[in-house]
Amino acid sequence: MNPRQRRGALLIATAVLGALVVFFTVLSYVGDVSSQVGNTRTALQLVRPVSAYEPITDDMLEVVEVPKKWLPAAALRDPAQVNGLVAAADLPDGAMLQTGMVRDRPGIQTGNREIAILVDARTGVAGKVGPGDRVDLIATMQTEDEPPRAEVIVSDALLIDVGITRDSRNTDKDTEDFGEPQTLVPVTFALSVEDALKVSYAESFATELRLALRGGGDESVVPESERVFEGFDSAVGRP
Fold it and tell me: How far is the C-alpha of 234 from the C-alpha of 239, rounded, in Å?
């Protein structure tokens, strides 16, 4: 073997040796990482943002593999664990579901009732309310014997669902907009039995029923002394 051939053979041997060193170094690193990470476990991850009180459905979830070492103890691992539950707060895309991030639907808690009513989109904060929002329900009324008034019939009502708007025509001949199209929105609340009765009565007999949207985190109760405002009665000359 001449000198040139010996140099070539030496270079090849050096390259092979270097490749073997790199291979065993990588193999050792992977083994070390695997020993630190350990086995994996399944977890539930959201594939899109979920609003507060929105029901969790299978199409929102992705089952992912997470190293056991890094899996939170409170992580939910099976889609069956969230069936029938809703988000406890606004959850971002990619969030890993854990206990405390989901809860039972408010309407099925002991003492509450679910009640759905149709609200005129013009007076119902159309497009601005959603599940988890809190509102005051205000009824405006007018009779022959009493001056017109507006009254907060339910304070701090929890809204748990907003349906799809629908168009209809006003059939009340005593109103100025008789025959004009209305856009109605079905909304569902979780209320006590007493408040559910008040809302049902107002929906049937009040001139209008409005939703007053509250600011985030405001769950204060409107005092009784501030719930009624009476307009001017020209017949008796009093406010």
Answer: 9
Q: Is 7 helix (H, G, I), strand (E, B) or coil?
A: helix
What count of other Cβ atoms lies within 10 Å of the Cβ of residue 26? Answer: 10
Contact 117, 154 (CB under 8 A): no
CA angle 204, 206, 207 (to 5 degrees): 120
Domains of the chain listed by start with CATH number: 40-104 (3.90.1210.10), 107-230 (no CATH)
**Residue 45: closest CA among 71, 84, 16, 20:** 71
The C-alpha atoms of residue 239 and residue 236 are separated, in whole angstroms, by 9
How far apart are the C-alpha atoms of 128 and 135, rounded to whole Å?
Answer: 11
CA distance 225 to 177: 33
pLDDT one digit per residue (tens) for the chain, 239 residues: 566 656 655 566 566 555 655 554 655 555 554 555 558 889 999 999 998 878 898 999 999 988 888 888 888 989 988 888 888 888 999 999 998 899 887 666 677 888 988 888 776 666 678 888 889 999 998 877 778 889 999 999 988 888 777 776 555 555 555 556 678 888 889 899 999 999 999 989 998 888 988 887 788 889 888 899 987 554 444 44
The helix or strand, by DSSP H or E, that contains position 3, with its residue range, turns out to be: helix 3-37
